[in-house]
């Protein structure tokens, strides 16, 4: 990964490709690289859909190696949804392939004149950019079939659906999985809209079976990787719960904790949870001939994904994840998994973030557009987003736009981004992360659920304020570092609980690059990334007053515990200044 591939879509004679060394960005990968580049090269006050914004696509430091779990891809830009800096990451094959081709990042710059649509092919011969208007308006699944027919199945792709072409705030970028399906999405923050603004429909990657990247110290690397995998396999979350039931194993757990947001965050428990739980989902998938255990990229040993098939055994979508099942299920009052699976497929096909879309539909239900629990109505609404009807364009631009258009005052969003599937009134630690993350409300930015609920890395009582600031701060620091490695964040369960697994991860990085980093160095990397991101946000006009939850979380108690979000503003201000 020794160069940056810059593609200026706005170059006067047509898109221009140039290759640069990693100067100034050497030693960075994943989120560390996307955030450093955006902070340095993108004017913080620019319009996110204008020519000054850049889309940075970066594999992690260990991507393209034989390290287990190392296939996460970071995609960064100034977000059209939040106006902050953004890093959204996804699984699938592209990170491994891009890294093996030798790229630290692909950087899309500028905006082309006219309304032609482009495809980019990156292989061992370099990068080629072609106009292909026959791709206009294609949903992701049809698009990938068409690309496959032309380029074969030895490729992988990043693509946008109609939502990205229409530059909607909830638009995602799809990454193809091992079966070359567009199922893994960099969903959050409208990164797909930025790709759409640059008129790039699809990036096709072909490494021609290039070998994995070679470590500086192969024997030590192999030893550390073996220990790392053993650590993942021996931990109950990464070795048992996630492989057996997927992330949706959390539905029953979070419902039991009274923190499962139901009908636009009005209740903390959903009466229909047993019909949409991970346990039921896995049973249904296997009984129909699908699969409840599946990896989203080669080298994943946890395999939290699956294949969801209909009652005739036909493929419907990948296993809908916990956040998706919640966003389209409990939060919309829908308790039918086949309906939720269809909504998941439509999100993937049109290229939409499932969280933002589910929360927007729940708001439309709150506004009386359709009733809570109306599955057929929800499916129709997503089709409207895909078609770009006036109502669809409102919903496709996310929770805040939807709430404003329908005059709602209970809007579960921070810095313009919808809250995920954990109510902060019943899990105070995740509320601290939602409020203070550099990305807007984002559970993955500092997953306090691990310690508040799952008792991983210790225990901090979810219903009390004590300990939540330090918990969220430490998790945000650790996450920024992990997001730079290319590792799936789910390794954190084992890494937080088992010192030897954490050490094995550091040993792998050291063996690969010939370094001698310590745990403290890793923490310092995370802190530095957060500082860079916060500095960008400050220059974009954000301050401590934006690090807050919506008022209704402080004012309206949530049943069954009858609690509100109780962490005070002074304490929130200490997260990044403590
Ligand atoms: S654990 Fe799940 S999300 Fe992570 S890499 Fe594996 S399949 Fe993908």
Write the layout of secondary structure elements.
Layout: E1 3-8, E2 16-20, H1 30-41, E3 55-59, E4 73-78, E5 85-90, H2 94-100, E6 103-109, E7 118-123, E8 126-131, H3 140-151, E9 156-159, H4 162-165, E10 173-175, E11 184-186, H5 191-197, E12 200-205, H6 218-234, H7 236-245, H8 250-256, H9 278-287, E13 291-294, E14 305-309, E15 315-318, H10 322-328, H11 337-350, H12 354-366, H13 375-387, H14 390-396, H15 399-405, E16 413-414, E17 417-418, H16 428-436, H17 449-452, H18 468-485, H19 492-497, H20 499-513, H21 519-539, H22 552-555, H23 569-572
Parallel strand pairs: 1-6, 7-12
Antiparallel strand pairs: 1-2, 3-4, 3-6, 4-5, 7-8, 9-10, 9-12, 10-11, 13-14, 14-15, 16-17
Helix pairs in contact: 1-18, 1-21, 6-20, 10-12, 11-13, 12-15, 13-14, 16-18, 18-21
This protein binds iron/sulfur cluster.
């Amino acid at each position: 990964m020794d160069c940056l591939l810059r593609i200026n879509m706005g170059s006067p004679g047509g898109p221009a490709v140039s290759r640069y060394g990693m100067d100034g960005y050497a030693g960075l990968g994943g989120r560390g690289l996307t955030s450093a580049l955006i902070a340095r090269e993108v004017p913080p006050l620019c319009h996110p859909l204008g020519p000054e914004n850049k889309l940075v696509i970066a594999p992690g430091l260990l991507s393209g190696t034989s390290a287990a779990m190392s296939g996460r891809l970071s995609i960064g830009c100034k977000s059209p949804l939040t106006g902050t800096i953004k890093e959204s990451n996804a699984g699938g094959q592209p990170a491994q392939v891009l890294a093996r081709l030798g790229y630290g990042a692909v950087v899309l710059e500028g905006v082309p004149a006219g309304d032609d649509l482009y495809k980019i092919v990156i292989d061992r011969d370099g990068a080629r950019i072609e106009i292909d208007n026959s791709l206009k308006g294609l949903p992701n699944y049809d698009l990938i079939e068409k690309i496959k027919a032309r380029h074969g199945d030895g490729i992988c792709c990043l693509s946008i659906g109609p939502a990205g072409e229409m530059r909607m705030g909830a638009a995602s970028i799809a990454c193809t999985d091992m079966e070359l399906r567009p199922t893994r999405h960099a969903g959050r923050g409208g990164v797909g809209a930025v790709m759409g603004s640059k008129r790039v429909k699809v990036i096709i990657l072909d490494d021609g079976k290039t070998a994995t990247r070679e470590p500086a110290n192969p024997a030590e690397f192999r030893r550390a990787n073996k220990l790392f995998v053993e650590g993942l396999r021996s931990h109950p979350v990464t070795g048992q719960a996630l492989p057996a039931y997927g992330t949706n194993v959390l539905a029953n757990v979070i419902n039991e904790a009274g923190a499962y947001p139901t009908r636009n965050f009005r209740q903390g428990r959903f009466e229909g949870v047993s019909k949409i739980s991970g346990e039921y989902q896995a049973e249904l998938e296997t009984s129909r001939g699908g699969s409840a255990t599946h990896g989203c990229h080669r080298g994943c040993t946890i395999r939290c994904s699956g294949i969801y098939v209909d009652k005739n055994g036909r493929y419907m979508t990948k296993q809908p994840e916990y956040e998706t099942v919640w966003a389209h299920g409990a939060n919309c009052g829908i308790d039918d998994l086949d309906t939720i699976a269809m909504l998941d497929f439509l999100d993937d096909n049109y290229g939409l973030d499932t969280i933002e879309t589910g929360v927007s539909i729940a708001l439309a239900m709150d506004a009386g557009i359709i009733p809570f629990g109306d599955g057929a109505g929800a499916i129709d609404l997503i089709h409207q987003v895909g078609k770009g009807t006036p109502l669809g364009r409102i919903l496709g631009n996310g929770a805040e736009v939807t709430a404003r258009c329908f005059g709602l005052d209970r809007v579960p969003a921070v810095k313009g981004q919808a809250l995920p599937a954990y109510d902060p009134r019943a899990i105070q630690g995740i509320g601290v992360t939602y409020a203070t993350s550099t990305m807007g409300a984002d559970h993955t930015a500092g997953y306090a659920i691990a310690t508040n609920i799952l008792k991983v890395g210790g225990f901090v009582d979810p219903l009390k304020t004590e300990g939540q600031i330090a918990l969220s701060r430490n998790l945000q620091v650790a996450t920024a570092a992990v997001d730079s490695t290319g590792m799936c964040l789910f390794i954190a369960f084992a890494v937080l609980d088992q010192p030897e697994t954490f050490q094995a991860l550091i040993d792998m990085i050291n063996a690969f690059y010939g370094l001698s980093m310590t745990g403290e160095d890793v923490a310092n990397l995370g802190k530095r990334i957060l500082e860079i991101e916060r500095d960008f946000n400050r220059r974009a006009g954000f301050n401590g007053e934006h690090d807050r939850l919506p008022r209704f979380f402080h004012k309206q108690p949530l049943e069954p515990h009858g609690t509100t979000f109780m962490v005070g503003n002074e304490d929130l201000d200490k997260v990044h200044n403590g």
